[in-house]
């Protein structure tokens, strides 16, 4: 289904705010603006193209930095005067080199800590690239294949035992351990979170297609 630009309500300056979100992590990357032309270019090229209010000109994200953004979806809000653009990014989104433009936290409820699997993956990768004394993660990388694979195997067994014991708390703990050691293995073998999510997503699409074919 093609996106209908005619439904978008541009403001008096011919602009519409575009919230750019990472397709995989769902992290908000930036807030930019589009006019009709930049939106048309974005949809045609499947790459983000914005309108610079300060320079009053179009600019394609990554045209000089190489940090492009491949568009996965564009969704209008309920009033059609704002857009949510999901992208697969190649490199930092912020011109300052940060992953996201939103880094200056003003307030956070102390009872809610920010966490994502991608953040944990990046922390684990940093422990590989920048070994820290006394770090268990660094220790695993130093030991290599045999140690990492042994731990993954042990944690698989612990998950099975916890499930058989019908101990919800223990099962939660062991699944967390397995997830962590699996991420260590992924970093060690050069697999990204995005690749795993892409594989899972492709299976979902295939499953839906098979179901539709069976119904016909």
Which percent bin holds the helix content?
Answer: 40-55%
Beta strand %: 15-25%
Distance between the termini: 21 Å
Q: Helix- and strand-based class?
A: alpha+beta
Helical region count? 6
**The CATH topology of the largest domain, please?**
Helix Hairpins
SSE order in H/E notation?
A: EEHEEEEHHHHH
Question: For this structure, what is the CATH homologous superfamily of the largest domain?
Answer: MazG-like
Q: Give the name of the CATH architecture of the largest domain.
A: Orthogonal Bundle
Summarize the structure.
The chain is of the alpha+beta class and 216 residues long. The chain has helices at residues 36-45, 117-129, 136-143, 145-164, 168-189, 193-215; strands at residues 16-22, 28-34, 49-52, 57-60, 69-76, 83-89. Helix 2 (117-129) packs across helix 5 and helix 4 runs antiparallel to helix 5.
Describe it:
The two termini are 21 Å apart. The protein folds into two domains: 5-89, Ubiquitin-like (UB roll) (Roll); 117-208, Helix Hairpins (Orthogonal Bundle), CATH 1.10.287. The mean pLDDT is 90. By secondary structure, the chain is α+β, with helices and mostly antiparallel strands. Helix 2 (117-129) crosses helix 5 and helix 4 (145-164) packs antiparallel against helix 5. The chain has helices at residues 36-45, 117-129, 136-143, 145-164, 168-189, 193-215, and strands spanning 16-22, 28-34, 49-52, 57-60, 69-76, 83-89. 44% of the residues lie in helices and 17% in strands.
């Amino acid at each position: 289904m093609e996106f209908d630009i005619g439904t978008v309500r541009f403001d008096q300056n011919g602009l519409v705010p575009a919230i750019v979100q990472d397709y995989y992590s769902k992290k908000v990357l930036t807030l930019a603006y589009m006019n009709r032309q930049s939106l048309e270019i974005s949809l045609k090229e499947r790459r983000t193209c914005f309108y610079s209010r300060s320079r009053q000109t179009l600019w394609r994200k990554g045209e000089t930095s190489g940090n492009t953004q491949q568009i996965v979806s564009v969704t209008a809000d309920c009033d059609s005067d704002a857009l949510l653009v999901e992208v697969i990014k190649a490199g930092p989104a912020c011109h300052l080199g940060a992953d996201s433009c939103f880094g200056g936290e003003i307030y956070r409820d102390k009872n809610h800590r920010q966490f994502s699997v991608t953040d944990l993956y990046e922390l684990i990768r940093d422990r590989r690239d920048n070994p820290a004394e006394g770090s268990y993660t660094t220790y695993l990388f130093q030991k290599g294949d045999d140690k990492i694979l042994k731990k993954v195997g042990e944690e698989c067994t612990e998950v099975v035992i916890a499930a058989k014991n019908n101990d919800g708390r223990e099962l939660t703990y062991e699944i967390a351990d397995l997830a962590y050691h699996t991420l260590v293995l992924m970093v060690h073998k050069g697999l990204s979170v995005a690749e795993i999510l892409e594989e899972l997503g492709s299976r979902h699409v295939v499953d839906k297609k098979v179901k539709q074919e069976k119904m016909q």
